[in-house]
Amino acid sequence: MAYCIINCTTKNKEEAIYIAKSLVERKLIACCNIIPSITSVYEWDNELCCDEECLMVMKTKTELFNEVEIAIKELHTYDTPEIICIPINNGSREYLSWVNEQTK
Fold first, then answer.
1. Alpha helices in the chain (DSSP H)
2. How high does pLDDT run on average in the chain?
């Protein structure tokens, strides 16, 4: 079984919690850590932006990435949300077993 971490930024903590709860309830992710305040610097529509955002760090099975991506796009307020999948090369066997049990 392959596992991954999916990162996604949101405009605020409330949106992050809303998305995280929905994904956990759907058994698409085992859990989500929400880092409530990060500063993101980027260019959007030819404008330099510097915004406070939240970072979601989600753990799941790699095979569920496409479903997670679709769900995030459905729930997210951004036109183009950050959705990045990072493979987990190694991890605690007990923790990854729990991730497996918590997801579909």
1. 13-25, 65-75, 93-102
2. 98
